[in-house]
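cron nightly-structures :: item 1 of 1
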Amino acid sequence: MALLSLVPVGLKKLMRRLHELCVIEGLKINYKKTKVLVFGRRYVNHRWSMDNHQLEQTRVFKYLGVIFSDTLSWKTHLQYTKQSAIKTVGAILKFHRSTGGNLVTPALKIFEAKVIPQVLYGALIWGWDTKAISSLETIQTDFLRRLLNLPPGTSSAMLRAETGLPPLTTHIHLALLRFMRSTVHLQNKDLLNLYLTHSSTQKSWGARLENLLHRYHLTIHQFNTIGSDKKLREAVIHHSQYLDRLYLLNSRSAPWYWRFKTDHSRSPYLTTYMPSNLRFAFTSLRFFSLPNAEREGRIAKVPKEQRYCICGYQGVEDLPHILLDCPIYHNPRMNLTSRWPDLNESAQLPIKYYS
C-alpha cells in the first residue's frame, strides 16, 4: 500500500487514518518494512511516527519492482535492472554452451522472452529519460558479441542486422508509443488534453511525444490514424533498421557488409545447425574481425599505409589480401579452390597464385 501527499502534514493525517482503520479491522502494520520517501531536489530529513513507532525516511524505495529515488532519478533502478539482466544473460550463455548445443536461434528466443521483458518492466515510467536508457543498449550488444564469439569493439549495428533484433531503445520507445496511442481512445477527452498539453515546456507529455515521433519520422496525424499496434511496430522498427543500415554504409569497419547482407532478417546460417568452430570462423569473416594489420592498426590509430602484412607484401593487410593474395595462406587456398575447379570463372575473383 502507498500513501501519497504533497505536504508532510497531509501525509501524517493519512497515516493516522490508516492506523485507525487497521485498529477497527483488526489488522497489524509491519513497522520495520514501513518506509517514508520524500521527493525533492534537496534532501530534508523529517521525523515520522505511527502509533508511537518511529518510521525510517529512506532515499530509495522499491515498490512493485520499480526503485524510486528521492530526487526522481532513475539511475538506481536502471543499474539494478542492468545487473539483473546481465545475470540472466550469463545463464542463457551457460545454457547455450552446454545443454543448448551451441544453437544460436534458441538462445536468441530465450533472450527475447526473458531479458527484454526484464528490461522493459516499468518503462512507461522511466522510459522518457533518453540519457538513462541509452546505457541499457550494452546489455544486448554484449550478449550478441559473446553469443557469436566476436571480439570487443564489434559494431552493434552489424550485430543487430545479423541476428534480426532491433535495439533495446526501440522496444522501450514502442512501449511508450503504444501507451500514448491508448490514451487517444480515452472517453474523457478533457483528461487527454490535460495529460498531453498541461504544460508548454519541453518536459510536457505532448512535447515528449512529438520529439519521440520525430525520431522515427512520424507525424501526429500518422500516429493517430495508424491502423494497429502491429503497423506502428513495423513503422518504428523499419526506421530503426534504416538508421542502422545508413550507419553501416558509412562505416569503415564494414565496407563490404551490405554487399551480401540485403535485409535485417536473421541470417540463414544462424538458423541451421553448424559446428560451432566453423560458425565462429564464418561469422568472423562476415564481420571482418579476423586478426589482421588493417583492423588492429585502425584500433591503434596506425596510418593505413603502414598496416603491412608479415608476408612482406608492400600493401595493407586486409581481408581481401588474406583470402585472395597472401602467400602465407597459399596451401589452404589451393586446397579450397581445388574442390571447385570453376570457382575463378564463376565468381570472377582476382585470385593470384604464388609458387
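cron nightly-structures :: done
The radius of gyration is 28 Å.
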